[in-house]
Amino acid sequence: MSTTKKTNIIPIIMMFLLFAMIAFVTNLCNPMAVIVKNQFGLSNFQAQLGNAANFIAYLVMGIPSGLLLKKIGYKKTALLGIAIGFLGVFLEYVSGWESVQSFWIYLIGAFIAGFCMCMLNTVVNPMLNTLGGGGKRGNQLIQFGGACNSLSVVFVTILVGALIGNVTKDTQISVAYPALFIALAIFAIVFIVLLLVKIPEPETNTSDEKVTTGVFKYRHFVLGVIAIFLYMGIEVGVPTYMLQYLTSAKDAATAGVAWDAGVAGTIVAMYWLCMLIGRLVGGSIGGKVSSRTQVSVLAAVCLIFVVIYMFAPADATVPFIGFQGSTGTFSSVQVPIGILFLVLIGLCTSVMWGGIFNMAVEGLGKYTEYASGVFMTMVFGCGVLIPLEGWIADVFHNFKASYIIVLICAAYILFYALIGSRVSKSADSAE
Questions:
Q1: Which domains does the chain have, with CATH numbers?
Q2: Averaged over 57-76, what is the pLDDT?
Q3: Three-state DSSP class for residue 174
Q4: Residue 229: exposed, middle, or buried by beta-carbon count in 10 A (0-12, 13-18, 19+)?
Q5: Is there a smaller number of Cβ atoms within 10 Å at the N or the C end of the chain?
Q6: 13-19-23 Cα angle (round to 5)
Q7: Which of the two residues, 206 and 162, has the higher pLDDT score?
Q8: What radius of gyration, in Å, describes the C-alpha atoms of the chain?
Q9: What confidence category does residue 170 fall into, taking pLDDT thresholds of 50, 70 and 90?
Q10: Average pLDDT, stretch 61-83?
């Protein structure tokens, strides 16, 4: 047993690195939305099309990714995904060239980068679950991988916020070049390292033609697929519109001036820091506390926090420390108390992804790889829910109104954890 654990260390570390890389590239979309909104004079809905393109790519590539796992294996799928990701980020970089200045090229780059993120997610989640032996131990590894994911998001959010500084109509994609260069370098380095590292390939049944339909006989899996679709509206929707609000709000709390993007980025990064803390705690107790318990408790808390945010008075404020990108210094700012509860939702979302995945693939056996691909397809929920939230904010001229979507999503996840995730007896005999 000890030998098996030792041989798994390097593969586990590689999966953790891939988790971090996924987060870095994916979460470039949020601060980039602030940039393109001002550079191209876009609405809230239009500004989120980059996010939408990134996540709609999951709809296109999710199932093919699962089939790739079965056909060419985990390592080759990851390497192919990394190469595609390099191309996507490079196109985002090209979109900011002075001679190009194209929002459409940026969208194409975000879409291609989304292919990469989908393929890598399809690899890392079942791989960590397998390396941990499934169950509580599998969930534990996914949560620790998620902690690496969150740490990467904290870094990229603060970094790009500091690079942007004060948001004006003259803010250009070029200000984010350092972050894009870092992303390209990460792709190149991880590709080389992964190419040289041996990754164990779980056995897959490539001859079963019913694998593409058999997985849907499992009720808890189907309901889990819906849960992950809606989960994306919480995880990404909360920080996305928190950042939009902080960089565009003009009210008494800000003396009529929007927050510096560096300060706003730092505040939003605290949401991701809360996710990091939650995932570390979730990973630490994951061997003892079930995914069902963790997700149900935190989904209920999430509901409470969203309601508090929506009804909290705007003139009730709390102090936050933020990095002033324009001056390169830290400063204290007063923000509405509701923002504090949005930040704390990071603790709630921290274990949801891993917990939902762990519950949904329980007992799937030979269907696991294909199920992972279907799961990744549902990440396109971001491409639907985030623009929908932006549309609601535009219609009501109020960012708070958009959080009704978050409430609905959290309510369903609570239902799934308490009821929908239970494996039925008919599923046990589906094999």
A1: 2-196+214-428 (1.20.1250.20)
A2: 82
A3: helix
A4: buried
A5: N
A6: 145
A7: 162
A8: 21
A9: low
A10: 85
